[in-house]
Amino acid sequence: MHYNIHDIVKINCNVKYFPKFFETEEFTNPDILIKQHNFNFDKDKHKKLGLKFYGGKKNLYLEYLVYGMPIQKLLLKNIFGKKSEVHFSYLTRKFFGIESLFSLFLEIQLLKKGYTLIHAGGFAKDGKGYLIPSWSEMGKSSTVFALAPKFKMMSDDLIILSKKGRLYSYPMKCGIFWHSRNIPPNVSLKNKLEMSVRFLMAKLPPLYLYIDPSIRVDLTDLSELEPSAKLEKTYLLDWGNGAEKMDKETCINKIITTSVLTLLWTFGTREIFSAYCYLNNMPSDFIERRMRSILEKGLNDDIFLVKSKKKDFYKFIERDLKR
């Protein structure tokens, strides 16, 4: 698969992961190479770290052995360089869930070019972009879905912001819950029935441990998409009642916190990234520092803290845009 992320980052990948919206024809010289295959790594020529890591020379190799046979093999190359690479075996992806590393590699390439992938929803009106950051499960998706009939969607969970203050869509498949107050109007009857069944089953022990109560729907199937727009205003969602102006520094701190948590959401991803930095003498706070620099330049001062206990944030946003 070949992905072109708004002509900013190009990715060659032989497994499906990134939004279908970015699929493109084959190209040469990608910024990121992601490859599932069998490969060899000469551990004797690299430093050992703990029981499973080897690296240095801009490499990190991870290997788990069972009865002398590797059941997990992962190789990261040149994470902070012009062309970064991720190599892994079939069993590694099948059983160890390394996909979050792909988003991490994308974020690092974006940061180097003056962009950042942040945990936020977004929509557009008349060519102007509106950013909706929040903590997970606070109501970003339902808010964007509620606004979709009147505005163009950009993202419900992740979105790209440039240091010049421009938003770029990142239309991943979105999780929709039956008990969401604002189910998108374009969801089919079949999907609605599936949602209701999943929701009911997920409430029953011990099924809730194994069943995801949401369905995954392509964002481009729900509404017209706005690929890019100049940032006009930010609405940060929180628990409570009312709305008030928010200072830029506080907003930046909250966006960084929830975005880094999303990018490094598994302990394994965080440990792998830290091991790479340790063995290659790279700053482990690279993401936070670059992200803060871009947010300070890219965000304007028109920021609202929107609070609700019913998750009906969209009502304030609609009223605000009518003023």
Search tags:
single chain; 323 residues; alpha+beta; 8-stranded mixed beta sheet; 5-stranded mixed β-barrel; 29% helix
Describe the 3D structure:
This protein has 323 residues and is of the alpha+beta class. It has one domain (2-322). The chain contains 8 helices and 18 strands. It has helices at residues 90-96, 100-112, 140-147, 189-202, 248-263, 267-280, 286-298, 313-322, and strands at 2-5, 9-13, 32-36, 47-49, 53-56, 59-66, 69-77, 84-88, 115-125, 128-133, 152-155, 158-162, 166-168, 173-177, 214-218, 228-238, 242-245, 303-307. The strands form 3 sheets. It has an 8-stranded mixed sheet with strand order 1-2-3-8-7-6-5-4. Strands 9-10-16-13-12 form a 5-stranded mixed β-barrel, surrounded by 4 helices. Strands 14-15 form a two-stranded antiparallel sheet. Helix 5 (248-263) packs across helix 7. The longest helix has 16 residues, at 248-263.
